[in-house]
Amino acid sequence: MTKFAVSFFWFRRDLRLQDNIGLFHALQSKYPVIPLFIFDDAILDSLPKNDARVGFIHDSLAQINIALHKSGSSLLVKKGKTQDIWQELITQFDVKEVFFNKDYEPYAILRDESICQIFENNNTISFSFKDQVIFEEKEITKEDGLPYTVYTPYKNKWLAAYNKETVLEYDTTIYYSNFFKSHFPFPSLEQIGFVESKIKVKPYSFKGITTYQDTRDFPAVDATSYLSPHLRFGTVSIREMVGFAAQNNAVFLSELIWREFFMQILYHFPKVMTQNFKSAYDGIQWRNNEEDFKRWCSGTTGYPMVDAGMRQLNETGYMHNRVRMVVASFLCKHLLIQWQWGEAYFAEKLLDYDLSANVGNWQWAAGTGCDAAPYFRVFNPDIQLKKFDEKGQYIRKWIPEFDLGYGKPMVDHAMARDRAIATYKAGILK
Predict the structure, then answer these.
(1) Per the CATH hierarchy, to which homologous superfamily does domain 272-427 belong?
(2) Annotated active-site residue in 339, 341, 364, 398
(3) Which residue of the set 50, 258, 314, 348 is catalytic?
(4) Would you indicate the residue range of the signal peptide (predicted)?
(5) CA dihedral in degrees (199, 201, 207, 210; nearest 10)?
(6) Given 296, 362, 364, 398, which residue is catalytic?
(7) Helix H segments across 29-105?
C-alpha cells in the first residue's frame, strides 16, 4: 500500500494559525502539510480530570480545526506517549519533513531531542523555529557571552536590540492550499479523558493598557489584560503583543520582557526548577508546617489580602499580580514554608502557569532567586491592604463574611517578621 508523502506541523505552545513562524515555513514545503497536536500522557497523567487548562487547549484546538475546514483540511489530534505517537505516524505516512516551534523548558528540550532522533532514524528532516519569544536564550547576553542574572541590564540590552521594523508578521493564510486534504475525527474532551471545568480562561483585553502603570497595583480595579494564559499557550503572537506594548505602554512592555528574562534563566540554570538559584540560601531551616500550609491554601490565614488572593485563585485560576507578591511573601516569610510548596500549589491552580515565570517569581518572593527581593524585605499584609485596597472592595468580593467579624491573624506580623529575618540570617551560608 502506497503511503502519502507528507510534511507535518506539530502544534505545541503555539495554538494559532496566524503569525505562527513554524507553520508559515511548513506551508511552503513541497509536500502537503498535516497539522498535528499531541496530548502528551507524560504531562496529562499528573493533572486532575477537570483541569481548566486542558479544557482551554481543547477549545483552542477546536477553533483551529473549524478554521482548517474552510481549506478542506482538519487537525489531527492524538493522545498518548509522544514517542509512540510519532513512531505510529511514521509507519502510517511517508513523513518527509516535520516543522515545529521551539520550547525552552527542560522537559521539552529532552523530549524534542528524543523525537528528533526518531526523525533522523527514519530519514525525516526536522525544522525548529523561534516563535514564543522575541529573543531566545543566547541572543541577549553580556559582553562575555554569559547570561544576565539581573533584570535591569537584561531589559536595557533587550530594548536596545528590539526593532519593531525587523520583527515580521508571518502571514500563513496565503499558503492554506498546501494543507493536507483530510477529515480527521476531532475527539471530545471526554475522549481525551477529561471533563469540562467550571473555571474558564477569559478573553484578553487591552482596554486598560494606556493607564496600566497607574492601575496595575490595585486588585479591585479590573484593569488587567488577562493576556498571560494566551501567551502561555500561544493563542496570540508574542510579536503582535510586544509590538502593541512598545507603542502604547512601556511598563506593560517591561512585564513582557520579564517573561523572557525568566525563560532564559530557566534555560541556562535548570536547577532553579527545584533548587535555590542562590545556593547560599540552602541552609535556611524552614518550618514547613503542614497545617499552616493548609490554611494558606484555603485562604483562612486571618490576613484579608492573603485570604482574598488565595480564594480568587481557588475559584477562578487567576490572582492579581500585586496580590501574588503578598501571598508568596507571607508563605515564605511569615510562615517560613519553603517556596517550592507554594510554587507547586500555583502550578496546580494557575491558568497562566508557566514554569519559568512561576519559579522565577516564587524565588524572587523568597529572596533565593536571581535579582530577588532581599531576605529582610517582609511585606506587611495589612499595610499592603491599606495601600492597594483601601476601601476593601477586593477583599469583600472574595471574603463575603469579612464584615461579620473576620477571624484573627494566624500569626502576629511583628513576631513573624523578626523570626523570618533571624532564620534567614542564621541560615545563609557564608
Answers:
(1) DNA Cyclobutane Dipyrimidine Photolyase, subunit A, domain 3 (1.10.579.10)
(2) 339
(3) 258
(4) none
(5) 110
(6) 362
(7) 41-44, 52-69, 82-92
Distances (CA, A) of 188 to 63, 79, 84: 13, 12, 21
Q: How confident is the prediction along the chain (430 residues), in pLDDT tens digits per residue?
A: 578 999 999 999 999 999 999 999 999 999 999 999 999 999 999 999 999 999 999 999 999 999 999 999 999 999 999 999 999 999 999 999 999 999 999 999 999 999 999 999 999 999 999 999 999 999 999 999 999 999 999 999 999 999 877 778 899 999 999 999 999 999 999 999 999 999 999 999 888 788 888 888 999 988 889 999 999 999 999 999 999 999 999 999 999 999 999 999 999 999 999 999 999 999 999 999 999 999 999 999 999 999 999 999 999 999 999 999 999 999 999 999 999 999 999 999 999 999 999 999 999 999 999 987 788 899 999 999 999 999 999 999 999 999 988 889 999 999 999 999 999 999 998 7
Give the torsion sign (CA, 147, 379, 349, 346): positive
* Distance in angstroms (rounded) separating the CA atoms of residues 187 and 180: 19
| Topology classification of domain 133-167+207-268 | 1.25.40
Place of cell 509590538: 243
Torsion, Cα 301 303 306 312, to 10 degrees, reads 80
> Looking at the chain, which residues constitute the CATH 1.10.579.10 domain(s)?
272-427
Domain boundaries 1-132, corresponding CATH code: 3.40.50.620
Residue 286 annotated as catalytic: yes
Q: Check 136, 255, 314, 348 and give the catalytic one.
A: 255
| Residue 15 phi, psi dihedral angles, 5° rounding | -80, 65
Question: Which single residue is written with the C-alpha cell 534555560?
Answer: 267
b/e map of 399-422 (b: 16 or more CB within 10 Å)? beeeeeeeeebbbebeebbebbee
Catalytic site residue 255? yes
Q: Are 58 and 47 in contact (CB under 8 A)?
A: no
Assessment of whether the complete model's pTM goes beyond 0.90:
yes
Whether 341 is catalytic: no
